[in-house]
User: Which sequence fits this backbone?
């Protein structure tokens, strides 16, 4: 079993793979769905090639955040890898987004941070928290 | 995204090292003197002190003086906050994917 990435979300999206990939990489579309409601996205950039910029300006709880990175891999419509300099995220976060076709109308989408340091951190934390719970008799 | 007072860069840097994780694990069973910690490892006392300083800077442990000894104890709050932080990130992404699903459902032609 491969070690679990620290941040991991998986979902079956009821749309064809090309459609999901487009929503993920089209700046105009990104603005329409990316920020969880009711917050909004002020600006989105996605230069769709290796080395291209990806950037989102979001408003969360009335505050403006900018997250930005560069595409390390751009393999439509299957895989995206980009670093993600988010002021609130661990340093050097690398996002991997995998698109898997399940049928003509369904795509499995998997999002993870493939940061080796944070991966070890999470494993370490799980073990340490386990010991701590044991120690505290919880 | 919730904001935290903790410096996560220091926390992650600290937890990125196997010796430091091992020290933390030992401390989950109770506080230990610097000497008692150093005894468990083949590295020098100076090297262990350096590891302890990093853990202290990350707020993962606290040190206090007891007579002529230094006692190190775990700061469970930092561990708990870090776990919560990573969990929040997961929740954020789950919500984002749900939002994409809704959006594509609405724009279906």
Assistant:
């Amino acid at each position: 079993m491969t070690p679990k990435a620290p941040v991991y979300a998986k979902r079956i999206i009821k749309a064809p793979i090309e459609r999901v990939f487009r929503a993920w990489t089209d700046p105009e579309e990104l603005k329409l769905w990316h920020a969880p409601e009711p917050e909004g996205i002020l600006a989105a950039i996605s230069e769709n090639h290796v080395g291209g910029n990806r950037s989102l300006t979001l408003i969360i709880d009335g505050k403006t955040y900018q997250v930005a990175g560069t595409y390390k891999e751009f393999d439509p419509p299957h895989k995206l890898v980009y670093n993600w300099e988010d002021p609130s995220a661990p340093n050097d976060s690398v996002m991997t987004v995998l698109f898997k076709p399940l049928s003509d109308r369904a795509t499995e989408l998997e999002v993870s941070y493939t940061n080796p340091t944070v991966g070890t951190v999470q494993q370490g934390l799980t073990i340490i928290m386990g010991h701590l719970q044991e120690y505290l008799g919880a | 995204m919730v904001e935290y007072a903790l410096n996560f860069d220091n926390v992650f840097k600290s937890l990125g090292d196997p010796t430091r994780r091992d020290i933390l694990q030992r401390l989950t069973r109770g506080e230990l003197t610097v000497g008692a910690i150093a005894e468990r490892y083949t590295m020098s006392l100076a090297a262990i002190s350096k590891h302890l300083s990093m853990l202290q800077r990350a707020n993962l442990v606290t040190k206090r003086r007891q007579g002529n000894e230094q006692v190190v104890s775990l700061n469970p709050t930092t561990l708990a906050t870090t776990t919560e932080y990573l969990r929040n990130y997961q929740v954020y992404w789950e919500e984002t994917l749900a939002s994409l699903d809704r959006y594509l459902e609405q724009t279906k032609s």
